[in-house]
């Protein structure tokens, strides 16, 4: 629940209707502070002097929806030295949460990898990546092979042995085959 605040300087004898301002949960009235945004997380946005008291996040906090969260918990501010820009997303370490910056506000939503994907970082981008022989965005992955021994050979699986293949048109039906690699043929 939010809190009510008022500036004691507004109290004038005989006036009963004081200008109260409602601040949502985790925000408060701050006279001399700044607010951090996704767009410029290291720069303070100084309050307008014409509006000397308004609801702001406390120092070292950033806006998340209508609440404030500690800046140390907002990994989207910087990743190393790389700034997460507007409309870009940050995926947390276990790929369970996506944080996106839109219109200078951080929004979060649940995020989950496909059963056929792995949560990992590649080229400085953490997200769900489809496993080998699967294609997709990591949230949804569909099998893409191998359909025969030649697919295995093309993927540098050049050892003789038993392999699982997924023949074209098999609707997920898998077959264990023995592939014999003959070099020079």
Automatic annotation (TrEMBL):
This is Putative alpha-tectorin-like. Residues 109-141 form the NELL2-like EGF domain. The keyword Disulfide bond applies. Keywords: Disulfide bond, EGF-like domain.
